[in-house]
Amino acid sequence: MPSREDILAFVADNPGRAGKREIARHFGIIGGARIHLKKMLKDLTDDGLMEKRNKRMIRPGDLPPVFVANLIARDKDGELIATPVDWDEEAGTPPKILVLTGKTKATQPGLGDRALVRLTEAEGSPEADHVARVIRVLEKRQGAILGILRKRDGSRPHYLEPIDRKQRELDIDPRELKDAEDGDLVSVQVTRSGRYGHPVASVVERFGSMNSEKAVSEIALQSHGIPHVFPAAVEAQAESAKPVEKLGKREDWRQVPLITIDPPDAKDHDDAVFAEADDDPANEGGYICYVAIADVAYYVTPGSPMDREANLRGNSVYFPDRVIPMLPERISNQLCSLREKEDKPALGVRMIFDKTGRKTGHSFHRVLMRSAAKLSYLQAQKAIGGTTDEKTETLLDGVLKPLWGAYEVLKKGREAREPLELDLPERKIKLKPDGTVDHVYVPERLDAHKLIEEFMIQANVAAAETLERKKTPLLYRIHDASTPEKLESLKDFLSTLNIKLPSSGGLRPSSFNGILAKVKDTPQANLVNEVVLRSQAQAEYAPQNIGHFGLNLRRYAHFTSPIRRYADLIVHRGLISALGLGNDGLPEGIETKLEAIGAEISAAERRAMLAERDTIDRLIALWMSDQIGATFQGRIAGVVKSGMFVRLSDSGADGFVPASTIGLDYYRYDEGSHALIGDKTGETYQLGDQVEVRLVEAAPFAGALTFELQSHGTIAGKRIRKAAPKVRRGPPKGGRGKTSPKKQGRRRSS
């Protein structure tokens, strides 16, 4: 048997390529010795010396063989240097990668671009940790600069205050203002040099007042490099597309009373559902469930301009009052959308469930359907609750009640499966007609939401099972188990609440559910849900299946949203090829590209999530900027050396309290208890504590709020009701100083 050091050395030399099989082959391990190898690999993983990713072993902090990178600089020889887009900050500083370009335009990026790269063993550079070769340029750097137009006194020209603080202010040519006014968000292009060589810029586009949602979301688009203008070739292809008017070789599902259930303001409808009790005597109490999904593959063919643009975008991006679609609106909102009372092409799945919620069979069909009705979640829920309207009155007995009957059966199967049951209310922003924030709220989660979610999960499982059975290439939606480091951190946190984390050897989603059940309906419930979420791995797309830990499913793929997710379109094409449903299925050679496509769209998904979150943070900071000095109730949502993060109870807004402003003592950070503890008084501020804060600063550009504590902490677990005696501020003699507020950084995402 090789030593632990031998195995670690082999994994280090083969990052992302060394699985158990490869290790056994390299060291000549056969027969019963494989059992000992499996134990050694588990011990190395438990000790934090290795991680398992997609059935491959890597060292913590190692890069996968294929990943998305930002090209950030050039070395002394002029070669491009990049850093990975997806990098865990806990692993330390992102590694520098020397990027080798290719001969074609698609493999020749420039500084500021984003590219898909593959690690190589080529000779490196003293300034880089790794070497990688470009597979494809994903995004070219935008030449326009985003900022706020500011007016100077007198006759001096306007200037641009850039959103990116690393950029310098720019004078604006007074002849090129494009009707922009003082305080507007604009994009500009440097056009010439002025006196003394200072650059002068022209306004390219005016987005309006910084207080509007459009302006704030524009900042997110620019700062995250999200493509949002369709090329002319893409628009032309979309406009030339013709609707499906004849049945042809499709099955006729127009008599099946499928309905769509979506948010009230939804414009694109991916999915429609119907259910009926199974009349087979052998399946008493069972149900037949139908799910019809928009047939995007009919309109978006492999290699076409729309296909290439959809691959680049990866998914649609959703802002409070604006959507950046993956596909042009003529496709997403018109031809593909399953509109009420209109004939539409779809890919349907018919699933049979027994009375316990176990799926006993399914089949896929390429169909022509006709949505019987478009309902909102609340509208459907009210009808089931006894309050019908003109539309739901006619649907109640024949459509809605059977759907809820099927949902009750599916719930039994879900409960037996025991997926991870996190309860994290989602903040929503209600906007005024002018695009400014009206209020922040948390929408109620209805059974109607859960019904659609469970129908979609089952359809996704059916798609993965069919493609796997047919040995057709596909992108799985995978979710790995938590790393030992994250589990150890969670264990430390739970210990402060006197909750024990079960042994990491056999952790299942139900193990986490037991923890969540203990804190349900307690003040710590939201906090524990968030910390458990942070301990989980990030879901992603990959052609190698490792299962979906959170849903507790052995195989899972995304099939139900091809209008807004490129992964689903690939699965649709796979089903068309595997089942002989047309000639517009998977292109030849796709299996060699799936790993790269999976990495690409996984990065696009994370990019969209960051942009959506940043927009909400900026809008809330704008909304609260006129409430400076007001006090609020909240809870401590995070503790670091330099202070603590507080989440407000009424709006869910997050802000930071610098440790230097607490004022009664010198507070040291205790990592194990997630608390700041006063040296002299023992006064403690701990994760989850309820506090009162005063808003002292709002920075809309950064989406950041700064608070000042108005309430006291606890001593020996008891709340201080009157001010503790003031002591010398600052560190005790010989102690360490506080971290500079400038280094406190942005709050960490869950």
UniProtKB/TrEMBL annotation:
Domain of life of the source: Bacteria
Region named Disordered: 718-750
Entry keywords, A to Z: Cytoplasm, Exonuclease, Hydrolase, Nuclease, RNA-binding
GO cellular component: cytosol
SMART domains: RNB, S1
PROSITE patterns reported for this sequence: RIBONUCLEASE_II, S1
Residue ranges constituting the S1 motif domain according to the UniProt record: 629-710
UniProt subcellular location: Cytoplasm
Keyword Nuclease part of the UniProt annotation: yes
Reaction(s) the record says it catalyses: Exonucleolytic cleavage in the 3'- to 5'-direction to yield nucleoside 5'-phosphates
Gene Ontology biological process terms, A to Z: mRNA catabolic process
Coiled-coil regions listed: none
Gene3D superfamilies, per database record: Nucleic acid-binding proteins
HAMAP family according to UniProt: RNase_R
Protein's job: 3'-5' exoribonuclease that releases 5'-nucleoside monophosphates and is involved in maturation of structured RNAs.
Family, as annotated: Belongs to the RNR ribonuclease family. RNase R subfamily.
Protein name (record): Ribonuclease R
Organism, scientific name: Roseibium aggregatum (strain ATCC 25650 / DSM 13394 / JCM 20685 / NBRC 16684 / NCIMB 2208 / IAM 12614 / B1)
